[in-house]
């Protein structure tokens, strides 16, 4: 998730303080991905370094960081505005598809891929437990969609939160279908005798010890 471009885009309507940017981001996403305030100010500092944002004159930017580069209390008094270069980056972000050639690491896919190759792992139980957890999450997302501001999005921010919820619902539904698919494939592989896992070693592996001086002389 690109916090950098998201914060830039939020600055397009006008200058804001760091804490305002954090609040606006979480308002639009329903705090699905909470931002640490330190992360916001660190990102803003990098954006300013890259000339994509600048501080508003007289907003206290000179005192925002100490000599070690750490963000102190004065950072909250700094107002930032987007630059022309920053607007160009936002425009490029909105007009460029999100690349899918290098998908993000999926912990569940990695866990299942490792589990099917190791002896002693109850893969069927793993799948069932995950399916139950994902179905619970799906029910929670669906409940949120039917209540609160996401159920009748009268404001743009409410519609944004509703769209995020839609994404979470679709992701959960897809994960459940994938788990069903994995379960069926593993069952079929077991019936056909194609599922073989390496035997667990009976003795622990030990690192070879270097030869002693006497052994070298003898050899």
Automatic annotation (TrEMBL):
Domain (Transcription regulator PadR C-terminal) ranges: 105-187
Gene3D superfamilies xrefs: 6.10.140.190, Winged helix-like DNA-binding domain superfamily/Winged helix DNA-binding domain (1.10.10.10)
Record's compositionally biased regions (Low complexity): 198-211
Region span, Disordered: 193-219
Source organism, top-level taxon: Bacteria
InterPro entries, sorted: Tscrpt_reg_PadR_C (IPR018309), Tscrpt_reg_PadR_N (IPR005149), WH-like_DNA-bd_sf (IPR036388), WH_DNA-bd_sf (IPR036390)
Domain Transcription regulator PadR N-terminal: 7-89
Pfam families: PadR, Vir_act_alpha_C
Protein name (Swiss-Prot/TrEMBL): PadR family transcriptional regulator
